[in-house]
Amino acid sequence: MMFIKQLILAAVGLAAGGIISAGVFAFITIIGLVPRLAARTKTAKHVRLYEDIIVLGATAGNLTFFYHFPIFGGAVMGVVFGLFSGIFVGCLIMSLAETLDTVPTISRRIKLAVGLQYIILSIGLGKCVGSLLYFWYGMAG
Q: How distant, in Å, are the alpha carbons of 17, 64, 86, 114 from that of 92?
């Protein structure tokens, strides 16, 4: 009975992880991060390679997280990993910021004249409070 329970939990976990990763990659695709970076660096012929490297990096990161593989190179590799992760997150944020230029258009179409800044502030504060509660109650590990 315990084996079946573990098997079901593993299946649900894999399915949930697949859904989340598909959502993240769909988000990256929708905002056009990879083609935009390739166009800016004048390497548009390598878009497929960039996409493959992103998938391989996400897979390697997940395997390292779950199976606690040692990272060779110690602090130096930690710095390199942090640098590349920061570059990726920065590019993702800038692509999202360009996508969010549509917020004024949407607010005009739904005739939202007053209070848009409060809606955005509420979303940010809600995310912050949720994160603080998550870490305060020790749910992070």
A: 20, 22, 10, 29
Q: How far apart are CA 115 and CA 112, in angstroms?
A: 7
Rounded Cα distance between 36 and 16, Å, is 29
> How many whole angstroms separate alpha carbon 34 and alpha carbon 91?
9
pTM to 2 decimals? 0.49
Tens of each residue's pLDDT in the chain, 141 residues? 888 988 998 888 888 877 777 777 777 777 777 887 788 788 888 888 888 888 888 788 778 777 887 777 878 888 888 888 888 777 777 777 666 666 667 667 777 667 767 777 887 788 888 888 888 887 655
Cβ within 8 Å of residue 34, ≥6 positions away: 28, 47, 50, 51, 54
Query: What distance, in Å, lies between the first and last C-alpha atoms of the chain?
Result: 27
CB 69 within 8 A of CB 131: no
Degrees, nearest 5: CA angle 103-90-135:
90
